From TrEMBL:
SUPFAM superfamilies: Toll/Interleukin receptor TIR domain. Keywords: Membrane, Transmembrane, Transmembrane helix. It comes from Symbiodinium necroappetens. This is TIR domain-containing protein. The chain crosses the membrane at residues 55-73, 85-106, 182-208, 228-246, 330-353.
């Protein structure tokens, strides 16, 4: 599916049958539940984060370790400490670039070796969109697709909990498969990740540049202390991070409130003509699962569905998002440049400074206090070689 990129989500002419993009199968790996109103690129990035993240992380780790080892081996015989300082951060660049390349292209790499991806359910491809009879059959048997799926992937947006279709899919899946089979991908966090990575990388580059004489001296002449330049750069970053966390906290709170007060009558339906069909599906499902008696009217079944949503969905969503409310994969990607930057420096710091860890903290901007082990001229200026190395020469 990712091989089609954003094309699978675009608006096709009415005479084009997206049903031809699907195939016959007896097993589904992932059922994708999403809101059609999202931008195409955001849907693609959400799926890329889900399906390609592990491969991208593994590839970035291998590339990073290889680069660091090569830098360290070359550093033993290297004489120019300034060159060594900049070369030590080559690992961070290789790691970040490798991760994003594999995240966006891993499905293409697999296709080159004739490896099939996971079989997924995507409504616009697996339910006929032009033949009304086939479309109705697909909608009526949606619960069968859900039962055949190993996992449900929820591409969450603020409209998700307000849609009748998506809540029907989610509430139907959970009682059968359980919360452990649910994965929630908040699109807001994906947007924040894409924005935050270059900002964190810029922070790391700027701090490293301040350790060079030609850059630091003019900055100190202007601001008296180079650390003020770090603060000037970090202040907007901190404001953006604070805004993002507050916005996500509000969005998560609103999501829980929407679920807590969910009512089938207030939910939106893309095509109002489909509402009665969805109601009928919900009532039939509630009877089949014995949530209501076989003779219960549709109204009682729909009320029972309300309670099912309010009890099952919050538990499953909390479990999927984790105790912090933010999946760790997003924090990992955002902090990748900063974490690898520290390791870069530690790898060659023994050749440059007697105390590598404090200097690594300073170099990444984590420690804003002047380090006592260095004089003001030694810290940010031209990097000096250890005395032992000088004496050998």
């Amino acid at each position: 599916m990712l091989l089609l990129g954003t094309q699978v989500f675009r608006d096709y002419p009415e005479d084009f049958d997206t049903f031809t993009l699907s195939d016959v199968t007896h097993k589904l790996h992932v059922f994708i539940s999403y809101n059609w109103a999202m931008p195409q690129w955001l849907k693609f990035m959400a799926l890329a984060f889900h399906f390609n993240h592990k491969a991208a992380s593994a590839a970035a780790t291998v590339a990073y370790i290889t680069t660091i080892l090569l830098v360290m081996l070359h550093a033993e015989a290297h004489e120019d400490s300034d060159d060594l300082f900049f070369r030590s951060h080559l690992g961070t660049g290789v790691c970040v670039v490798t991760y994003w390349l594999f995240l966006l292209c891993w499905h293409d790499v697999k296709a080159l070796f004739w490896r099939r991806g996971k079989r997924v359910f995507l409504d616009r491809c697996c339910i006929h969109q032009t033949d009304e009879e086939l479309k109705q059959q697909g909608i009526e048997n949606l619960d069968i697709f859900l039962q055949l799926s190993d996992q449900m992937l929820v591409v969450y947006s603020e409209l998700y909990t307000k849609k009748l279709w998506t809540m029907y899919e989610l509430a139907t899946f959970l009682p059968k498969r359980g919360p452990n089979r649910l994965a929630v991908l908040p699109t807001f966090l994906i947007r924040c990740t894409i924005l935050a990575v270059p900002m964190v990388a810029l922070h790391c580059i700027w701090v490293q540049m301040l350790l060079v004489d030609d850059v630091q001296q003019p900055v100190e002449d202007l601001l008296l202390d180079s650390r003020l330049a770090i603060l000037l750069l970090d202040l907007p970053l901190l404001l953006v991070v604070t805004w993002a966390f507050r916005r996500w906290a509000k969005e998560e709170k609103q999501m829980r409130e929407n679920v807590r007060t969910f009512h089938y009558g207030d939910s939106h339906c893309l095509k109002e003509a489909d509402r009665s069909m969805v109601y009928s599906n919900i009532a039939r499902y509630m009877r089949e699962t014995k949530a209501v008696s076989a003779e219960a009217p549709d109204e009682d079944a729909l009320v029972a569905f309300n309670e099912l949503v309010r009890t099952e969905v919050p538990i499953a969503v909390t479990k999927s998002l984790g105790g912090w409310g933010i999946p760790l994969r997003y924090l990992f990607v955002i902090l990748m440049p900063m974490m690898t930057n520290i390791v870069d420096y530690l790898a060659v710091a023994p050749l440059l400074y007697p105390e590598p860890l404090p200097m690594a903290m300073y170099a990444t901007g984590w420690e804003l206090q002047r380090l006592e082990v260095f004089s003001p001229k030694e810290t940010p200026g031209k990097l000096k070689k250890p005395e032992a190395e000088i004496s050998r020469q």
